[in-house]
Amino acid sequence: MRVLAGLRRRLDSWARPRRPESLPARLDRKRIYILPTGFGAFVTALLLTMAIGALNYNNNPALLLCLLLVGAALASLLWTQLQLSGLDIRAVHGAPVAAGQPMPLRVHVDAAPGRERRGLHLALGDSDAVLSLDDAGGEATVVLPTLRRGWLSPPRLRISTTRPLGLARAWSWVWPQTRFLVYPTPEAFGPPLPEGGGDAAQARLNPSGEDLHHLRDWRPGDAPRTIAWKASARRDALIVREFERPQGDDLTLDWQRLGALDHESKIRRLARWVDEAERNALHYRLQLPGQAAIGPDRGAAHRHACLRALALMPEAG
Amino acid sequence: MARKVLALDAAGRRWTLLAAAVCLVPLLLQLPMPLSVAIAIAGAIAAAMASRRVTPGWLRAVLALAVFGLIFAQGGMNFGRDTGCALLAGMLAIKPSELRSVRDARSLLGFALFAPFATFLLDQGPVSLVLGLLGAVLVLAALARLSEQEAGLPAAGVRHATRVGIVVKLIAIGLPLALAAFWLFPRLATPLWGIPDMSTARPGLSDEMSPGGWLDLIADDTPAMRVSFRGAEPTTREMYWRGPTLTDYDGRRWTASPWLRSLPPAEVEHGAPTWDYEIALEPTERNLLVALEMPLEIPPGVRAAHEYTLTSERRLDRITRWNLRSSPQVRFESDLPDPMRRLALRLPPGFNPRTRALAQQWRSETDDDGALVDRALAWIRGEFAYTLETPLPGRHAVDEFLFDYKAGFCEHFSSAFTVLMREAGVPARVVTGYTGGTRNAYGNYWIVRRMDAHAWAEVWLEGRGWVRVDPTAAVAPERIYDTLEDRLGAGGAGAAGGLLPIADLGDWARRMWNDFMLGFDADRQQRMLQRIGFEHIDTGRLIGLFSLCAAFALGWMLWLVARGERERDPLLRAWHRLGRRYARLGLGRARHEPALAWARRVQAARPGEKALVALTARFTAARYAAGASDATLTRALRAHRPAREIDR
C-alpha cells in the first residue's frame, strides 16, 4: 500500500499543471488523465476471460456479446474523458477567515453548451463537492483548511468523474494562481478592550449612562461593576451591561501598549480586540509599528483593513 | 484516500436486481425445468431479502444449501459443464441477499455478466443471444445508475429511457470496433483446451445398444444434422446414414468391438452413383460421425474404423461441418479373414435356446446363406409387427421377441435378426445410424432428426461381402423411410400439416443462423478474406489488418463522441444552429453576450437583417418569460437564414 501511495504521489507530481496558472483555465486532453477504477480493472479481467474463452471455443454468440461490451466500455472511456474536456474554470473565490477556520472556496466553472456535464466531482484535499453544469455554468464549494495568518495559496483542485459506467476515472488538476487572505486567529480569552483612546481619563463604560446598548453574557475579564445583578438573578447567569460609546470617543488599539507579550500573541490580541470593537460598534483605530494608523472607523471594510494589516504583519525576528 | 462505503439507494437496487434477473433468464431456460424453478424461487427470496437492512445469516445459509443440494442431486456426482452452469445460476440467484453497498451491486452485476456466457456453452441459439444482449444492456444501464449515485446525482434526475438510451448509444459507438474484431481478429484453428463435458449425456448414437435404451432418442424430434447435396441426391430408401457398428453381444447389450475399431478400414468396391454432400452435425458431445453408406473419402480430422465407423479426433461439442462423398457399395470386405469371421459369429453361451434350435433347423435345410437371409426376412415380414410399446425383456431377450410377443422396433429387429443369423452360422452384425430425412423446401437441404435414429443388420455373404439387411423395413417401411409429412398425414393432423411450411421456414432460418453466426471460424475467416482479395493471409498480416480497421473504428468513436450529445430541447437546438449560421459570417454571439444585444449588433453590421431582432425577442420571451410558449418559433428559427448582402 505504501508503495502504491508513493507511486500515486509521484504520478500526481508529474501531472499537469505543474505550477500555478492564471484563471480562467480550460481543461483539454493534454491535462485530462484517465485511469481505470478498481471496478474497471475487474471488468477488464472479466471481459478478457470471456474473450479468451469465447475464442477458444469459437463460440460466436459469446464472442459477439463480449466484443459489444468491450466496445461499449471503450466508448464509455471516451465519454468519461469528454465530460471534463472543454471545461472552463472561470474563477475561484474565497472570503477571508481566521486562521484555523475552514475557508469555503467557491469554484465557478462553465463550458460550451451542448454536452451534458453533471455529477462532476470537485475535490480539494479531504473536502469534496458535486459540480453540475447547466447552460449558465455551474458552481461548487469546497473547503480549504487554514493554518496560519497571511496569504494562503490554494493547492491543486481536482475535478474528476467516473460517469457514465464507473469503469474509469478521468481527472484533471486546476492550480489557480491566486492567494487568499487568512486573518490571524483571535485569542480565545484575554483582557477587555483598552480604556479609551489616548486619554485614559475617559471611562469606557458609563454605569449610569442612559444609552444602554445591550446585555450580554459575562466573559472573563469583564469588570464586576458592569454586571447587571438584577438581570443576572432573573436569568440565573451572569449578565453584563454594555453601553454605547458616544461618537468621537475613539478607541485606539496600539501595538506599543501591549507590553511584554510576544509577537504572535500581540497580533492575536489585537485581532480579538478588532472583532470585539466591531461587535460593540465602536470606532477604533489600529496602530501597528512602522505603519500609518488605520482608522478610526468602523464597519466591515475597516475591520477587513485592520485584520488584513494584522494578517500581513511580518513574522517575529 | 479513504474508501467510503456508499450505501446503495433504492433506484440502484431496482436496476441491479432487474439486470441480474434478465441475465439469469436465458441460463434458466437451458437448465432442467425443476432446477430452474427452484433457482428462480431462491432468486426471488434473495431479492426480497435484499431490500431489508439485515438478512438473517441462517436464512442465507439455508437458501444456499437448498439450491446447491438440489443441483448436485440433479447432476449426480459427475461435475460437468451443465453442473457448472447450474452452480453459477444458483450463486447468482442467492447473491442479491447481500446487496447493501454500491460495491456489492457492482460485483453482482459483473457476476451476472457471466450468466449469458454460461448460457452460450449450453445453447447458441438466437433466443439465447437476444436475451443475453438484453441482459447486457440492462447491466450497463444499472452500472450507469450506480455511477450516477456515486457522482451524487439523485435518481429522479435522469429518466430510465435516457439512461438506457445512453447505454445503447455507447454500444452503437463501440459497434464498428466490435464487428471489426469479430470478423478480423485471428481465430484459433484448434482450441487450446477442450470444452468441459456435460454431466448428463443426451441420448444419442453411441457405441452400445441395450434394450429400451433408444426410446428417448426415438421420441426426440430435434435435428441431428442437416445435409445439403451437391449434384445427385439419393432417394430416401438409399439414405442409410451409417454410424457405429456393433459386433460384440453379451446376451443383452450390443457393443462396438475395440479391436475392429483400431484396424484400418476394410476394402470396399464402390458402385455408382456418387453423392457429394455436406453434413452440418449438431453437437453430440461424442466423437461419432455418420456418413451415407459407403463413404468414399474420409475428410481430414476423421478416422474410419475397420467397419467404417467414422470418428472425429475432437469431441463434437458444437455444430461441425463435414464434406463427404459416398457411393453405394458393390463389395465390402469380400475376403473376410478368419479372426473377423469368428468375431462376427460369436455369441454368449446359454442364451436364447429356441432361436438356436430354429437356426440349426433352418441351416440343416439349406447351405445357401442368401436363402437363409431371405427366409428369415419372409418370416419377419409375415408374422411381426412394429410397436414402440415393448416390455423389458428377460434373460432370453431374442427368444422372447421372436417367439412370444413378435412386436418391437428397430432395436429388437436388428438384434434378433443378427443373433438368428449368427446361430445359423452366417456372420452378422448390428449397424446403427439414421435413415431417411426430411427435405426442407426453402433451403434445398435435408434435415435428419434424432428420431430418425435406426438400427439395421449386416450379414456377410460369399462373393459380396457385407450386405445391408433391414428387418425393420421388411415390417414397417413407412416407419423408417417416411417423411414428417407422411407421419403427420397418417395421424390425421391436418392443422399440423398446415403448420409444416412455417416449421420448415423456422428450421431454414435456424440453419442460416448456424451457417452465418455459429459457423464463422478460422477456416471461414480465411475464405472471407480470400473473397475480398487477400490470398494466403498469415496471422501477422491479419493482425495488421485488424489493427488498421480497429484504428479506423476507434477514430470514428472518437469523432462521434467528441461531436457531443445533441441538445435535447429542439428550440435551443434551432437557436444554436441559427447562431452558427451567423458565426460563419463572423458574427457569432460571444458567450456572455445577451441574445438581444447580439441581434442588434448583427443588425448594425448588416442592415438587411430585419427579422433577426424580432425573432430573437420572441426567443428570449419563449425561453425566459414564465409561462410563455411559442408554437411556431422553433420552425421559424430553423427557417431563418442570414439575409443576402445587399450590394452597396
Describe the structure.
The complex is a heterodimer of chains A (317) and B (648). The two termini of chain A are 43 Å apart. In chain A, the strands form 5 sheets. A 5-stranded antiparallel β-sheet of chain A has the order 2-11-10-6-7. Chain A has 2 domains: 22-183, no CATH class; 246-311, no CATH class. In chain A, helix 2 runs antiparallel to helix 3 (60-84). Chain A is an alpha+beta fold and 317 residues long. In chain A, 29% of the residues lie in helices and 27% in strands. Chain A has helices at residues 2-14, 38-56, 60-84, 229-235, 263-279, 300-311; strands spanning 25-26, 32-36, 87-94, 97-98, 103-111, 120-124, 127-131, 138-144, 150-152, 157-161, 168-174, 180-183, 212-217, 239-243, 251-254, 284-287, 294-297. Chain B is an alpha+beta fold and 648 residues long. Chain B folds into 3 domains: 10-158, no CATH class; 209-494, no CATH class; 570-639, no CATH class. Classes of the chains: A alpha+beta (317), B alpha+beta (648). The interface between A and B is large, with 51 and 67 residues.
Question: Short summary of the structure?
Answer:
Chain A is built from six helices and 17 strands.
